[in-house]
Hints:
This protein is mainly β. The chain has a domain at 13-39. It is 0% helix and 30% strand. The protein has strands spanning 18-20, 23-26, 30-34. The protein has a 3-stranded antiparallel β-sheet with strand order 1-2-3, with no helix packed on it. The N and C termini lie far apart (21 Å). Zinc ion binds next to loops. Zinc ion (ZN) is lined by residues 10, 12-13, 15, 26, 28-29.
Amino acid sequence: MAEKANGRPCPLCGESMSHRHCKYVCPQHGVVYDCSDTFY
Ligand SMILES: [Zn+2]
């Protein structure tokens, strides 16, 4: 339960993504998900 609760792992590289406003940002790939995208 000590995970960084900042978001989901990137589906491409597994890095923890930051959740900024409406976006998930991977440090490697940039914005991966946007709230206007459909994602699980
Ligand atoms: Zn990534």
